Amino acid sequence: MTTVVSVSVLPLGDPSCGPLNNCATVVITPVTTMATCGAAVPDGTVTFDIIPAVPVVNLIGVKIEIDGPVQATQFNNFKFTGLPAGSYNYIVTYGDDTNPACIKTGLFTIDPTGIPDLVNFNITSSTYDCLTSSGSVVLSGFTGSANTDYTFMIFDNGNVVLNGPITKDQAASGSFTITGLALGSYQIQLSQNQSSVNGCVGSVTSVFYDLAMAEPAGGCGLFCTKRIYA
């Protein structure tokens, strides 16, 4: 009986010759700090929290590449500095650039200081008056920058059909009523120019909310105009 044994000779440094790598279990977490809005020199940072920091199979160390508003590559240095605000992609080559499982990718964002205040509101109610052929909607629950006026915009198929101001005092009172709407389907949105309270922010808009202006449940057929004849 003859036994045949196959032997493969691997190059020096091949991962198969040493302990199994830990590519599947490494944990990579980018931790960011904000970039100062308006700074002459960008000062955002990202630090890659990598556990474990040293790969089991360590042919090249830890190579980190970032690509966004700026590009940079570092070896065994987990902190990047001088970053402007924006979205970035990263590639971490963890100890072994010949093994695809050891190449990790992801995203991180450097936020600017002076983040805008969220603008939002609620639609409390909407009614249609058959006698005046006019609808109204009540808005409430305003959020945004304090001591700053709003502007409402009502759209019909993408066109602004009604707009106007909502003062900071009207918003602070808790509710604001918009009148003069015909029957139909609309979208309503608020905007707020926050530049007066935050020099790094301009106009901030809310999401769109759907608004249906419909006749009362019983319809408008029961309403009539009284005529006086001479």
Walk me through the structure.
The chain is 2% helix and 47% strand. With 230 residues, the protein is mostly beta strands. It has 2 domains: 22-110, Immunoglobulin-like, CATH 2.60.40; 120-213, Sandwich (Immunoglobulin-like). Strands 10, 11, 13, 14 and 15 form a 5-stranded antiparallel beta sheet that branches. A hairpin with a 4-residue loop joins β8 and β9. The radius of gyration is 31 Å and the shape is elongated. The termini are far apart. Residues 223-229 have low confidence and may be disordered.
Low-confidence stretches are: 223-229
Query: Percent of residues in beta strands?
Result: over 45%
- Cα-atom radius of gyration: 31 Å
What structural category do the secondary elements indicate?
A: mainly beta
- Domains, number: 2
Q: How far from one another are the termini?
A: 128 Å
What is the CATH third-level topology name of the largest domain?
Answer: Immunoglobulin-like
Q: How many beta-strand segments?
A: 15
Helix content: under 10%
**CATH architecture level-2 label of the largest domain:** Sandwich
Average the pLDDT over all residues and give the rounded result: 89
Helix run count: 1
CATH superfamily of the largest domain: Immunoglobulins
Largest sheet data:
5 strands, antiparallel
Morphology call: elongated
Give the CATH level 1 class of the largest domain: Mainly Beta
Q: Secondary-structure element order, as H and E?
A: EEEEEEEEEEEHEEEE
